[in-house]
UniProtKB/TrEMBL annotation:
Gene Ontology biological process terms from the UniProt entry: proteolysis
Name assigned to this protein: Aminopeptidase N
Keyword Cell inner membrane: no
Record family assignment: Belongs to the peptidase M1 family.
Length: 881
C-alpha cells in the first residue's frame, strides 16, 4: 500500500504535457505472479514546449526491468526510475522517438483491485482513475490520447480467452502451451479506458444492426454455467444501443462490444472502450435470485456504461476535476433512458429519494464539495454522489431552462465540436450558450458552489386585483472552503390549482421570467406577480423536482391534500404526500425522545390511504406513496441533536397508526396484487409486487404479523416477494421462530449463490437495535463471508454502517468503534473500499452530544493510526475538520 504524501492537486495548476503521445503498443506475457509488460510508446515534443524538459511518466508500486530508446539500451545516466515515476532526460527537441519500457507486475498480489489483478481465476484490469500507472510507466492522465495495439500472450489451457479494447486483429499459437491474441483500438483514448481480460469464461452472443446498417457483434462473458443469467443484461444492452440512436443520434463505432462480469470489483462497472467490465451484481439476474430492484439496476448500469461510449470515451475529460463532464451527463442520460423504458414519474420519485438520502447529506456535511471541484488529495474519493447525481441534476436543469429541442441542439454542438477531444465543463456549457443564445454564467455556479440551496417561498392572493404574489428567497449554505455564496439561477417548475382541483393559467407574470411553466429565480430575493387569477390558488412549486433544492413553503394540510389528489404532475403528488407525512414523523421523533404519547394528524393519513386505494394510479406510484420518509430522511430534516432510537420509535408508531386505520385497504392490496402467470421483470409487474410488499409491511403492524409474513415467504415465487417477506420477519420479529426459520431456509437455498447471500447478509445487518452489531460480527466469521471481496464487505459492513442508524449508532458507541477497526483492516488491502465505507460517518456532527462524542473518538482512532492510505487519510481528516 502507498501511504499518504499529503500532496494536494489544484485545478489552477493544470497545464498540457510537454510531450505528445502518438501511439501505444503493449505486450503482456501473463503470469499470475510475474506478468511481463512491454510498453512501446512513440512521443514527440509538443510545439512550443521547453526543448530541455525531461519526460516524466507516472508509476505506482512499479519496478523497471528494461528501458530502450529507439530500440537501443538507454544509458543509465539518462533516466531515473522510482516506484512512482520514470524521468527521461536529453530527449529530441522535435523528432518523434520511441521508448520501450519493461516492467514486471504481480496480479495475484494486487488486492487494491486497481491495475491488473486476478479475480475468480481470471485476469482483469481496472484503470480509472489512476490504475494504468500500476501496469507500466505512462503519462497517466485523461488528456493524453492515443490509439492502442495490445498483444496478449498467455497459457492457452487456463486462458482460452484473450480480450482487449477495439477490434480483434488475430491470434495464433505461441509455443510451450501458450497462445497469443492481438487487438487494435483505432479510437484515440486515454489510459484510464484501457482494459485487458484473460481466462476461461462462458459467453452469450447476439448482434445489433446500427442505424447506418453496420452489424455489431455483442458478447457478454460470465463464469461458466451462469450464461442464462446474462440474458436480461443483453436485452438491456440492445435497448440502450437503440435508444442512444433515437434520443441522441449516437451510433456505436466498433465491430464488437463486449461486457465481462467479474466477482471482485470496487465499483459498479467500468466503461473501457469496447470492453466494459462489470461487477457481476449488475449483470446476472433471473427471477429466482434477482429482485425487481436488481433488474432495474442492471438495466440502468448497462445503459450507463454503454452511453459512456459517447459521453466519456469519444469526448473525455481534460483532467479529473472535470469528472462530472462525463459522469453527470451520463447519469442524466441513463435516467432519461430508464424514464422512457419505465414510468417517468415513478422513476423521478426514485431518483429524488436517492438524491435526498445520499447527496443532500453529503452536501450538508464535512465532505461537501462542488460538482466541479478545484482541489483534491485523492481522486478516488471524488467519485461521489455530488459529482454523479447532482451533476446529473445540473444537466437536467440545462434541459429545463433551454427546453428539450434547444437542449438537443446544444448536445449536437457538443458532439460535433468536441469529438475526439479531452474537454472541460466550460467547453460543455459553451455549447448550450451557443445553441440557445442564452448567457449561462450565473447558471454555471451550480458547478462551482457546493451546498444545497434553500428556497423559502410564501404566496399571497389579492382577490380584488386577481393577482397571486409569490415571494422567493434563496440561501446557499456555507460549505468547507466556501463561506460567501452568490445567488444561483434556479429553474422552478410552477403551477396553480383552484379549489376544485383544476389548473389555473396565469394571464401574465411580472417580476420573473416565466416560460413553459418554469419560473426563473435569479435574485437573492424576488417577487413574482401572477395576473388573472380568479380565485384563491394552491401553488405547486419545484414540480418534477426541477431544481435540487430544499424548499420551505408553509402549506395547510388541506392544500397539500388537494395537490396530492389533483396535481397533474405525479411527482408533485408524491411530494405533497411526503410533505404531509413529514411533520408527523418529526413530531413523533421529538415526542418519543421526551417519552410522550404519539398521535398523528389525520389528514395526512387519509391522503396516504386515499392514494393507496386509488385504482386510477399505477401500483408503482402507490407503493412509493406508502413508503414513508426513511429514518435518515427524518434525521436530515431534524438537522441536529439526533437520537436514532427516538427517530426509529417515532416512525414505528406512525406506521402502526397508518396500519390500524388502513387495515382493510392493505389486506385487499396484499390479496389482489399477486404476480399472475409467468414472472416478468417489466416495470408494470414490478409495480404490482412493490405495492403488495408495501401492504405486507403495514400488515406486520396489525394482528398475526409473523405468521402472515412467514406464509408470504413460503409462498413467494420470485425473489422480490421472498426477500421482502424475509426482511419484514427479520426486522420486525427478529426473535420469532418464523424469522429464525426463514433466515435459515433462505441461507440453505442460496448457499451457492454469493450475490443472494449478500442479500441475506444485508437483511441481518439492518435489523434495528443494539443487537445487530453482534450479529454482524458473527456473520463475518461465517465461511460465506470473504474479507477480500468488496461485494461481501459492502453487503455486511457497508450496509450496517450506512443503513442501520439504531444498530450502528447504538448508544454505547460500540458500532463506531467496530467500524474504526474494520476500516483500518480493510485499508491494508483495499484503500478505495475502506475510504468509501468510512463516508458513512459523514453526518456524525448532527448526532446528539453523547453519540457525537463517541463517533469523534472512533474517527480520531482512525486518524491516529500509523500508515494510513491517502484515501482514508483524506476522508478522515475532512470528516473531523
Ligand atoms: N467510470 C465508472 C462509471 O461511472 C465508475 C468507476 C470509477 C469504476 C472508478 C471504476 C473505477 O461508470
Ligand atoms: Zn459513469
Amino acid at each position: 500500500m502507498r501511504t499518504d504524501t499529503g500532496q494536494v492537486i489544484n485545478l489552477a495548476d493544470y497545464r498540457p504535457t510537454d510531450f505528445v503521445l502518438e501511439r501505444v503498443d503493449l505486450t503482456f506475457d501473463l503470469d499470475p505472479t510475474e506478468t511481463k509488460v512491454e510498453a512501446r510508446l512513440i512521443f514527440h515534443r509538443r510545439e512550443g514546449a521547453d526543448p530541455k524538459a525531461p519526460l516524466v511518466l507516472d508509476g505506482d508500486e512499479l519496478s523497471l526491468s528494461g528501458l530502450l530508446f529507439d530500440q537501443m539500451e538507454m544509458p543509465a545516466e539518462q533516466y531515473t526510475a522510482t516506484a512512482d515515476s520514470l524521468a527521461v532526460y536529453n530527449l529530441p527537441a522535435a523528432d518523434p522517438f520511441e521508448l520501450t519500457i519493461s516492467t514486471i507486475i504481480n496480479p495475484q498480489a494486487n488486492t487494491q483491485l486497481m491495475g491488473l489483478y486476478r479475480t475468480g481465476g481470471i485476469y482483469c484490469t481496472q484503470c480509472e482513475a489512476e490504475g494504468f500507472r500500476r501496469i507500466t510507466y505512462f503519462p497517466d492522465r485523461p488528456d493524453v490520447l492515443a490509439p492502442y495495439t495490445v498483444n496478449i500472450i498467455a497459457d492457452k489451457a487456463a486462458n482460452p480467452l484473450l480480450l482487449s479494447n477495439g477490434n480483434f486483429l488475430g491470434g495464433a499459437g505461441y509455443g510451450e502451451g501458450k497462445h497469443f491474441a492481438a487487438w487494435f483500438d483505432p479510437h484515440p483514448k486515454p489510459s484510464y479506458l484501457f482494459a485487458l481480460v484473460a481466462g476461461d469464461l462462458g459467453v452469450i452472443e447476439d448482434t445489433f444492426t446500427t442505424m447506418s446498417g453496420r452489424e455489431v457483434a455483442l458478447k457478454i462473458y460470465v463464469e461458466h454455467g451462469k450464461e442464462p443469467r446474462a440474458a436480461y443484461a443483453m436485452d438491456a444492452l440492445k435497448r440502450s444501443m437503440k435508444w442512444d440512436e433515437e434520443a441522441f443520434g449516437r451510433e456505436y463505432d466498433l465491430d464488437i462490444f463486449m461486457i465481462v462480469a467479474v466477482s471482485d470489483f470496487n465499483m459498479g462497472a467500468m466503461e473501457n472502450k469496447g470492453l466494459n467490465i462489470f461487477n457481476d451484481k449488475y449483470v446476472l439476474a433471473d427471477p429466482e435470485t434477482a429482485t425487481d430492484a436488481d433488474y432495474a439496476n442492471i438495466e440502468a448500469i448497462i445503459a450507463h456504461e454503454y452511453f459512456h461510449n459517447w459521453t466519456g470515451n469519444r469526448i473525455t475529460c481534460r483532467d479529473w476535476f472535470q469528472l462530472c463532464l462525463k459522469e453527470g451527463l451520463t447519469v442524466y442520460r441513463d435516467h432519461e433512458f430508464s424514464s422512457d423504458q419505465r414510468s417517468r414519474p415513478v422513476k423521478r420519485i426514485a431518483e429524488v429519494r436517492h438524491l435526498k438520502s445520499e447527496q443532500f447529506p453529503e452536501d450538508a456535511g464535512p465532505l461537501a464539495h462542488p460538482v466541479r471541484p478545484t482541489k483534491y488529495r485523492e481522486i478516488n474519493n471524488f467519485y461521489t454522489t455530488t459529482v454523479y447525481e447532482k451533476g446529473s441534476e445540473v444537466t437536467r436543469m440545462i434541459a429545463t431552462l433551454l427546453g428539450k429541442e434547444t437542449f438537443k441542439k446544444g448536445m449536437d454542438v457538443y458532439f460535433d465540436r468536441h469529438d475526439g477531444q479531452a474537454v472541460t465543463i466550460e467547453d460543455f456549457v459553451k455549447c448550450f450558450e451557443d445553441a440557445s443564445g442564452r448567457d449561462l454564467a450565473q447558471f454555471s455556479l451550480w458547478y462551482h458552489q457546493a451546498g444545497t440551496p434553500l428556497v423559502t417561498a410564501s404566496g399571497s392572493y389579492d382577490a380584488t386585483a386577481k393577482t397571486f404574489s409569490l415571494s422567493l428567497e434563496q440561501m446557499v449554505p456555507a460549505t468547507p472552503g466556501q463561506t460567501d455564496k452568490k445567488p444561483m439561477h434556479i429553474p422552478l417548475s410552477l403551477a396553480l390549482f383552484g379549489e376544485n382541483g383544476g389548473k389555473i393559467e396565469p394571464a401574465s407574470v411580472e417580476g420573473a421570467e416565466y416560460t413553459g411553466e418554469v419560473l426563473h429565480l435569479i435574485g437573492r430575493t424576488q417577487t413574482a406577480v401572477l395576473h388573472g387569477i380568479g380565485s384563491r390558488p394552491v401553488v405547486s412549486i419545484n414540480r418534477s423536482f426541477s431544481a435540487p433544492i430544499n424548499l420551505h413553503l408553509d402549506q395547510s394540510p388541506a392544500d397539500l391534500a388537494l395537490l396530492a389528489r389533483h396535481e397533474t404532475d405525479h411527482f408533485a403528488r408524491w411530494q405533497a404526500l411526503t410533505d404531509l407525512a413529514l411533520p408527523n414523523l418529526l413530531k413523533a421523533a421529538r415526542d418519543a425522545r421526551e417519552g410522550k404519547a404519539i398521535a398523528c394528524e389525520q389528514t395526512s393519513i387519509d391522503a396516504l390511504l386515499h392514494a393507496a386505494a386509488d385504482e386510477s394510479l399505477e401500483p408503482a406510484f402507490r407503493a412509493q406513496a406508502l413508503a414513508l420518509p426513511s429514518e435518515s430522511d427524518i434525521s436530515r430534516e431534524l438537522g441536529s441533536n439526533n437520537d436514532p432510537d427516538a427517530i426509529h420509535a417515532g416512525r414505528q408508531a406512525v406506521m402502526k397508526q397508518i396500519a390500524d386505520r388502513g387495515i382493510a385497504i392493505f389486506t385487499g392490496l396484499f390479496e389482489k396484487m399477486t404476480t399472475p402467470g409467468d414472472f416478468s421483470p417489466d416495470a408494470k409487474s414490478a409495480g404490482r409486487r412493490a405495492l403488495r410488499n408495501a401492504a405486507l409491511t403495514y400488515l406486520s403492524y396489525v394482528e398475526n404479523g409473523p405468521a402472515r409474513a412467514k406464509a408470504a415467504f413460503d409462498a413467494a415465487n420470485n425473489m422480490t416477494e421472498r426477500l421482502h417477506a424475509l426482511t419484514v420477519l427479520a426486522h420486525r420479529f427478529p426473535e420469532s421462530g418464523e424469522a429464525i426459520a426463514a433466515l435459515s431456509t433462505f441461507r440453505d437455498d442460496f448457499v451457492e449463490n454469493a450475490l443472494v447471500i449478500d442479500k441475506w447478509f444485508s437483511v441481518q445487518a439492518t435489523i434495528p437495535g443494539p443487537s445487530a452489531l453482534d450479529r454482524v460480527r458473527r456473520l463475518m466469521e461465517s465461511p460465506l463471508f470473504k474479507r477480500t471481496n468488496p461485494n461481501r464487505v459492502r453487503a455486511l459492513v457497508g450496509t450496517f454502517a450506512f443503513t442501520n442508524p439504531t444498530g450502528f449508532g447504538r448508544a454505547d458507541g460500540e458500532g463506531y468503534r467496530f467500524l474504526a477497526r474494520e476500516i483500518l483492516d480493510i485499508d491494508q488491502r483495499n484503500p478505495q473500499l475502506a475510504a468509501r465505507i468510512l463516508t458513512s460517518m459523514r453526518s456524525w456532527r448532527s448526532l446528539e452530544p453523547v453519540r457525537a462524542g463517541l463517533a469523534r473518538a472512533a474517527l480520531t482512532e482512525i486518524e491516529q493510526a500509523p500508515a494510513l492510505s491517502t484515501d482514508v487519510r483524506d476522508i478522515v481528516e475532512r470528516t473531523l475538520k
